[in-house]
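Review form for a predicted model. The reviewer records the input and the model, then writes brief findings.
Reviewer: anonymous (R2)
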Amino acid sequence: MINSGDTTFILISAAMVLLMTPGLAFFYAGMVRHKNVLGTILQSFIMISVISFEWVYIGYTMSFGPDVGGLIGDFSMLGLAGVTSAPSETYATTIPHLVFMIYQCMFAVITPALITGAFAERMRFGPFLIFSLIWTILVYNPVCHWVWGGGWLAERGVLDFAGGLVVHLTSGAAAAAAVLVLGPRKGLGRDKFMPHSLPMTLLGTGLLWFGWFGFNAGSALAANGVAATAFVATHLAGMAGMAMWVGLEWKLYNQPTTLGAASGAIAGLATVTPAAGFISPHAAIIIGLIAGLCCFTAVTYKNKIGWDDSLDVVGIHGLGGVIGTLCLGIFASKAINPGGADGLLAGNASFLATQIFAILVVGTYAFVVSFILLKILNVCCGGLRLNSDDETVGLDQAAHSENAYNM
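Model under review:
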């Protein structure tokens, strides 16, 4: 039967997850140069429209339709056929099926938006839209079904509470492919690429942190103890990631920064995502500290080798998804969530092996498909990148005939 408390909780959570996409837009836009602000924001905002269309007509049934061979959902719910205000017998028995559908829609929306940080300031808008739509169909929907829709990875015992594999690893792997295919921004290594508005990035961080409570706690799909566990874990990992990143900057460079605080918080939040509903508060703090250390190291190393992942999608979201999925295999406990599994510290090494297998499968699949898709579009769409002159002018004028600041 429908429970009004659970329904209200998931509706609010869905709205919070939607807010994360504008939050991501501000987070990214603050870190680019002023000539690319609106183009960067639009790359996130437009996903709300493009992917919602896709989700209604094909994405939801591919992801959560009745299983076909463990690989994909069937097409019985095309255009939301049969998705009504009655509960879903399969996924959420205390909330309307429509509520479950729209909650999952918000996850689908933000995932391709995350990828945009990797190719910020240099990808043409038309090919970007085509890539995002096809990528969601070929990568996000199948992986979502494998892990959350009763597919073959779920059958093997793989767990992902709120998107370490489905959201962060897929987007991180796609970001790595995009960096390789598009190449570095014009002037990398010669010009300084300074964030134009760190207050905007901090505003985005705050919106993302707030929305992440809906992202993780809402994944319990009920207002219950598991949601409380995930809520607390989310906050503690975020604050621990921030503390570690700022502490490392202070120790190594004697200069703690606001950008470091924002990056560390997002690293902790992303990394705890797959584990949030299965771990203790102390484990969440440890995961956040590990995330701050590892993601800080990855971003620092990237800068040394000239890897132009513009806004650190691979180093924060991709690596965070990997670390969080591994930590779930270590810290998970059935004493905390009987619906989960015991991890390595509870004497179950096989579960950690299962999580490692899932990382290899999802990471490889997402990278290979993304790389091939980008290569094909680069030929078929007349190039993915802005031409040299347009890149110099910036996305805002060259692609959209607008200026963020008229001074």
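Findings: Strands lie at 67-68, 72-73.
Further findings: The CA atoms of residues 34 and 389 lie 16 Å apart.
Recommendation: see findings above.
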